[in-house]
Structure to design on (226 residues):
């Protein structure tokens, strides 16, 4: 598994350098199969290899994260340095990060990645990098611990981000009801949003927020509709 992890690390960290390797490898496999079977159609394997190479800069890190989640060991890491680069992604600067990984057996391993190459699990349409200096959960293969997947949902920063996202419908519903206190539809929407949040985050580490939302829900139940 260490060798597989090392290969995926190279492909995800250096997608443009690795781009010609996809069609070349596919063509070599096709040539070998052609020699073994006598069917020249195997040579066309270079075409899907070219397609994979073109897609690798966009999905290489996601494939790496899926592999590490399935085959990896749980550890932790801390970003110790971050700096803005001159490159951009969707008009936003790409950042370079250096981190120290603490393995399950207590070793400290240095690694690095950037905004584009970070392997984040689960894969979403947003790049959530942990704050510098905050420990977060990772998965890695012991044979090559430099290659890590950032486990967003198992890390404190990821859970905080999810809570903030899930609070948005609650606060929007609260604002609607504040604007129109006599609107029964807005009251029901607010009640549903509070109930959904409390049900989803009843075990989260923010007792003050949960107590506030439970008090709001109780007040809605105690206040008769007009």
């Amino acid at each position: 598994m260490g060798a597989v992890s090392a290969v995926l690390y190279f492909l995800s960290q250096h997608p443009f350098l690795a781009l010609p390797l996809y069609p070349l490898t596919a063509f070599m496999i096709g040539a070998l199969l052609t020699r073994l079977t006598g069917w020249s159609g195997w040579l066309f394997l270079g075409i899907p290899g070219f397609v994979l190479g073109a897609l690798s800069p966009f999905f290489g890190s996601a494939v790496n994260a899926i592999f590490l989640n399935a085959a990896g060991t749980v550890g932790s890491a801390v970003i110790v340095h971050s700096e803005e680069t001159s490159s951009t992604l969707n008009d936003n600067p790409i950042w370079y990060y250096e981190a120290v990984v603490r393995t399950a057996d207590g070793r400290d391993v240095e690694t690095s990645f950037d905004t584009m190459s970070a392997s984040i699990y689960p894969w979403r349409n947003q790049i959530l990098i942990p704050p510098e200096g905050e420990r977060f959960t990772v998965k890695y293969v012991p044979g090559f611990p430099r290659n890590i997947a950032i486990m967003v949902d198992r890390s404190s920063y990821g859970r905080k981000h999810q809570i903030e996202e899930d609070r948005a419908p609650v606060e929007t519903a609260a604002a609607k009801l504040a604007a129109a206190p006599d609107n029964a539809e807005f009251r029901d929407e607010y009640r549903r949003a509070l109930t959904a949040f409390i049900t989803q985050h009843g075990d989260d580490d923010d007792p003050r927020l949960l107590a506030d939302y439970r008090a709001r829900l109780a007040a809605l139940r105690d206040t008769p509709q007009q």
Observations:
- The first helix runs from residue 2 to 13.
- The two ends are 65 Å apart (CA to CA).
